[in-house]
């Protein structure tokens, strides 16, 4: 377990468990859905974790790349999908740490889970007003490779919780939660308790707010897509700032331009970098 402290904020990490952020607290109150790091048994229980080298789902756990189908490892409980990349399933190495910051790293060699070698770093810096995150992935293959990244963050849905953000579009999803078509959309300003959706918004301006009577939490990111998941009756609201839409590699193979999907096509040695800041303060 790795602990960071800065003013009223405290953060606990489990690098060996998918690089997970176990919890983030402001004066003892959970900013994200939080567990003590020692109680965490899976990254899926965590407050958040890095998503790399792709976000959300890959349909049928296989990609078509340069005319060749590349099967992926199906994730238990998510078949027939592969989901949320590899980072949350693999241990990360703690490279450096001080009282308020940590640097994690993860290296992947091409295997049945993902046919492209890459390495990535995740830097976390806690300040009295928020948690700053920087995530980078570098293509270590000898060929161009599709890449994506982001974060998956879980928020408690307390009574009166509201969600607000601006966007320019929304992707309709099919029964397997793959994108079908894009519509113009301005984002959301809604009571989070009444939400029942799993949608990817694009043209996101990088800012979002989750607030209730106790806390106001703001996200500020360099990313331009936001996946919002809030099942009816669930006690958690999930926000995922990500670089591309779900199933982007499949959509690209059908002729949709990579830029429309947010899919990065990295040359050997090229990197993709994203930033995120989670700000928290008491009161609505």
Question: What's a concise summary of this model?
Answer:
4% of the residues lie in helices and 51% in strands.
Textual characterization of the structure:
The protein is mainly β. It has 2 helices and 26 strands. The protein has helices at residues 248-253, 258-261; strands spanning 2-6, 9-14, 20-26, 29-30, 48-51, 57-58, 62-65, 68-71, 82-83, 93-97, 101-108, 118-127, 130-139, 145-147, 150-156, 162-166, 169-173, 179-184, 187-191, 197-202, 207-211, 215-221, 225-230, 236-242, 264-266, 271-282. The strands form 6 sheets. A 9-stranded antiparallel sheet has the order 10-11-12-13-26-22-21-16-19, with no helix packed on it. The longest helix has 6 residues, at 248-253. The two termini are 32 Å apart. The model has no long low-confidence stretch (mean pLDDT 88).
Give the SSE layout.
Layout: E1 2-6, E2 9-14, E3 20-26, E4 29-30, E5 48-51, E6 57-58, E7 62-65, E8 68-71, E9 82-83, E10 93-97, E11 101-108, E12 118-127, E13 130-139, E14 145-147, E15 150-156, E16 162-166, E17 169-173, E18 179-184, E19 187-191, E20 197-202, E21 207-211, E22 215-221, E23 225-230, E24 236-242, H1 248-253, H2 258-261, E25 264-266, E26 271-282
Antiparallel strand pairs: 1-2, 2-3, 3-4, 5-15, 6-9, 7-8, 10-11, 11-12, 12-13, 13-26, 14-25, 15-24, 16-19, 16-21, 17-18, 17-20, 20-23, 21-22, 22-26, 23-24
